[in-house]
Amino acid sequence: MANMQAAAAQYLSKYGHQSIACNYYVLTKLGIDRIHCYLKIDEYIILCVPFQLGFKRALFLASLSRQELNFFRRYINSSVGLSIGFAPNRKQAPIQFFIRCNLVNLGQMKGRENVGILVVDYKSTPHDMVILLGDFLENQLRLRAGYDEYGNSIIKMTANTTKMLGYNMYATITEPNNREKRIQLFSLSTKTIEHLEAVTSRERPPGTQVHYHLFFKKYRIFIPGTVKSVVRPPQGGIIKTSANLVFSPELVEIIGDYWYTIRRELNETDVSANEHEFSRISRNLR
User: Fold this and answer.
1) Distance CA 79, CA 37 (A)
2) Quick one: 250 exposed, middle or buried, by C-beta within 10 A (0-12, 13-18, 19+)?
3) 78: domain range?
4) What are residue 79's DSSP bridge partners?
5) Which of 127, 148, 169 is the last residue before a domain boundary?
6) Are residues 105 and 199 in the same domain?
7) In total, how many domains does the chain have?
8) Taking a C-beta distance cutoff of 8 angstroms, is the pair 64, 49 a contact?
9) 86 shares its domain with 221
10) 169 falls in which pLDDT band (50, 70, 90)?
11) Least confident of 18-27, 94-103, 207-216, 235-244
12) pTM
């Protein structure tokens, strides 16, 4: 118990001011039980989904009409209950929390009709929840380090590397005011991508902002990029485009696993070779 309190205090000191934006990747990694996530306001139960999770405050999305939003505004600054579960290790049952909160604000999400945002402050944050959020942020730091570590390690997309990466052989590119277009990956790292397009494709000038959609078995990754260079053979032919990629935790995970597998196979090969050499020397000494 004392160790848990100390770990929670350390995370609060380090990350207490931060919040986690809850996209699909974050919800999956934290194992948020979206079916049983709700706010209890008076006798009303409002099913919701985390939009931002912090150590002291959280924002939730809920399906609420304008009339319902107006009705629940009377509860601003009132006590509410939050039920939320985490299952970061899917082999274990979710850790369920019921947290007393203050409803700080609520309103309509901009551009989304019938979607409300509810802001709550925890009256007290459970140590287990602090540790779950802190562990997640620590892992994000490791992934950001991996973004730099593997940024210059280019992976050529061959049949073997495609299999090891779990790449589903499907990728697209989009840019403002243009439709999504399929591309062929040529090479990949955590920071860069090279892809091929048909002869009839338009060349994008360096600096063009684009978005990639990469399909892997583990994740479907949406990642922004900036075109760095475009090469088209003088005689015409397939266009090769190189682009810089922003940090994507999903992509770093996949590429980190790839290089871990490569190192492990090399180590196993070295051990096998050493054992063979030891056996040879032993036979010669008999």
Assistant:
1) 17
2) buried
3) 2-148
4) 102
5) 148
6) no
7) 2
8) no
9) no
10) very high
11) 235-244
12) 0.84
pLDDT for 269 equals 62
Please report, for residues 134, 156, 281, the alpha-carbon distance to residue 275 in angstroms, rounded to integers and kept in the order given: 43, 32, 10
Beta bridge partners of 155: 188
Q: What residues are paired with 21 via a beta bridge? A: 52
Of 118, 148, 178, the domain-final residue: 148
Q: Using one digit for the tens of pLDDT, what is the confidence trace for 35-68?
A: 889 999 999 999 999 999 999 999 999 999 999 9
Strand partners, 210: 225
What sections of 88-153 are H helices per DSSP? 127-149
What is residue 274's predicted lDDT score, i.e. its pLDDT? 46
Question: What average pLDDT does the segment 161-177 reach?
Answer: 94
Asked whether residue 285 is assigned to any structural domain, the reply reads no
CA angle 199, 202, 205 (to 5 degrees): 130
In a domain, 167, yes or no: yes
Structure tokens at 8: 């929670």
Residues in the chain: 286
Q: Which two tokens stand for residue 71?
A: 């009705």
Torsion sign over Cα 207, 211, 213, 218: positive
For residue range 115-136, list pLDDT tens digits in order.
999 999 999 999 999 999 999 9
One domain for residues 135 and 190: no
Nearest to 49 by CA among 78, 22, 87: 22
Same domain, 139 and 163: no
Instruction: Give the whole-number percent of the chain exceeding pLDDT 90.
Output: 76
CATH of the domain at 180: 2.40.10.220
Largest CA distance in the chain: 91
